[in-house]
Amino acid sequence: MFTGLIEHMGIVSVIDELDTTESGGGGWSMTIGDSSPILGDCHIGDSISVNGCCLTVTEFTKDAFKVGLAPETLSRTNLGQLKVGSLVNLERAVAGHVRFGGHFVQ
User: Fold this and answer.
1) What is the separation of C-alpha 72 from the centre of its chain, rounded to a whole number of angstroms?
2) What are the E-state strand segments in the chain?
3) How many of the other CB atoms lie within 10 Å of CB of 87?
4) CA distance 30 to 74
5) Which residue has the higher pLDDT, 95 or 50?
6) 93 and 50 in contact (C-beta within 8 Å)?
7) Overall average pLDDT of the 24-35 stretch
8) Bridge-partner residues for 66, per DSSP?
9) Secondary structure letter of residue 5 according to DSSP
10) What pLDDT band is residue 103 in, cutting at 50, 70 and 90?
11) Model pTM?
């Protein structure tokens, strides 16, 4: 779940239409850089909202993370139209032990 409140803006650093790495799964992947403010407690499998779309982290460093993009996601969101250098809105999933601001978005 997400509150709908943007935590940070990241930058698309890599778009790979055929990511054959283990974390790419053989499909589309996108790496978002300049993301260190939201990655301090990140784990593989965490959900991060990118431009309002819930995506699963498949790889990360201290400043960037990678997500896979399914064909349905590409057809129903603006994520397939992004280019390297595009700014994206980022939000971590809500943890159950924190105060909730904004509203729930699922």
Assistant:
1) 16
2) 8-16, 28-33, 47-50, 53-60, 65-69, 87-92
3) 13
4) 11
5) 50
6) no
7) 94
8) 31, 59
9) -
10) low
11) 0.89
